[in-house]
Amino acid sequence: TINDPTTITAKLRQGVHWQNKAPVNGREFTADDVVFHYNRLLGTGSGYIYPALMYGGMTATWDRVTAIDKYTVVFKFKQPSAQNFQTIADNFALNEMDAPEWVALGGPPKNEPPAPGGAPVGGGGGPPPSPPPASGPLADWKSVVGTGPWMLTDFVSGSSFKFSKNPDYWGKDPRYPQNQLPYADTLTLLVIPDGSTRLAAITTAKVDVLGAGNNTALNWQQAQQLSKTNPYLQQQKVPAGASGIGLKVNEKPFTDIRVRQALDMAINRPAIAQGYYGGTSSQDSVGLFTSTYAGIAYAYADWPQSLKDQYAYNPTGAKKLLADAGYPNGFDTNVVTTNDANGLQLMQVFQSYFSDIGVKMEIRPMDSAAEQAFTRDGKHDQMSAHAFAYIMPPTRVMDVFYSKGGSDAVFYGLDKVPDTKYDTLHDNFIAATDSTTAMQLLQSMDKHVIEQHYVIAAPESYNFNIWLPTLKGYSGENLGWGQGLTLSRLWTTNK
Length: 495
Hints:
The chain is α+β, with helices and mostly antiparallel strands. Helices cover about 30% and strands about 20% of the residues. It folds into three domains: about 1-120, Dipeptide-binding Protein, Domain 1 (Dipeptide-binding Protein, domain 1, Alpha-Beta Complex), CATH 3.90.76; about 150-235 and about 470-490, 3-Layer(aba) Sandwich (D-Maltodextrin-Binding Protein, domain 2), CATH 3.40.190; about 240-460, Dipeptide-binding Protein, domain 3.
């Protein structure tokens, strides 16, 4: 319940127990566990005096969390905000709770002050900075314990995770309320980096589902081939966002919006949709949020014709814009990207289109980890390959272009170029107290980013999840982060 604009009271489900293993030994999950978790995260008690840096942006409006009885928790916020409830409901690690007894295995709180520069915001622009290598008791997978349907029984780094069902799990299947979850006795998650090996695993029934997450889902060529060679396999197309190039808009020539518009007009998106994506993607231009967020994303159908014209393929018009901006012969630039085949191939497509208007773009490939660190540190001097039309929750993604923010904004140089209009929309969203206003402000943020041409993006793409017909209860949805509950609702018949 929401008692006032700065207070949310939550009632916990009774009868939920930690898994029956040391150091928690199956005791009941209570409000004290919730308070401990958020004290640890916010630096507001339980021995913790500094907040966790990783969640600084997502918890900027939080004050503290308290328990008023064994099953009732009160969330108190510094100000009313549409973000408050969304943050509590997010399935991000922010809300994944560790048992106090497990945390205690690592010793007392270190209470080291955060490094200068403040907390990174959100989480929309990419993964957080890599933590130091784990060590000590908390790095031992054998001690991992939670309240969920699966218990980790074996772990081989870079190879596999094996789980057994939690016999004391509280959950029932909402589709069949009489049925106790999980259905399966065991669950194995395999790490198979090689694409051909992954395909062989599904075609030989060594795995039940393939893809089930954006990092491992199949592209349209692979899915099309499987539909011919193995037509019995089930397929589902799922949004994968858009790929594109982020411009460092604090550096010339990208400080001039005419240059940014010219680069967008150089891209033939219908041709990319039909050729590069095999007709499986939309031809429409996109913005900050995936088009599947209806009412939040600024739908292409609602764009005025003048804005559509700025994204339409028009190399002649692009050359004129460059000439008007003082670059009649184009210019030389470079893009930092990952060295995987898909990333390089799309950058080569962009490179060809840019060349047609006199822009010579050098491609500078790096391995994925190095590229993320390089761009997050702002070391790229011109462009960086990056995502757009994000499929993550908008309240995480909106921080990417927030110039008052931290490391996420670095991808586009916006930490050095305050965008007052966008910042105001962002701040107004934080202060919004009703869902209608909040949705309108998110859409206004999306519209503004599109109008400013901060990212030169291909059309929104799709991946494909593939599964055996013997896997039941599954409809093709992604099974990535935080989907242990969904996996508990699946079962298999004889292969």
